[in-house]
Amino acid sequence: MTEDGTSIHVRIDDEGYTHITVIQWDENGREIVYREDETFQCSEPQF
Length: 47
Known about the structure:
Number of helices: 0
Strand content: over 45%
Distance between the termini: 19 Å
Strand order of the largest sheet: 1-2-3
Largest sheet: 3 strands, antiparallel
Low-confidence stretches: none
Radius of gyration: 14 Å
Helix content: under 10%
Structural class: mainly beta
Order of helices and strands: EEE
């Protein structure tokens, strides 16, 4: 978790899909979640 209350989770599954979840909290303490799922097909792994 970062200093401003943002949490970023990155997971790469067995099929090479990258799942990114960003969690933030607004000024009222409510959780805001952003998700992005991508597949990277390349000869070298991306980090």
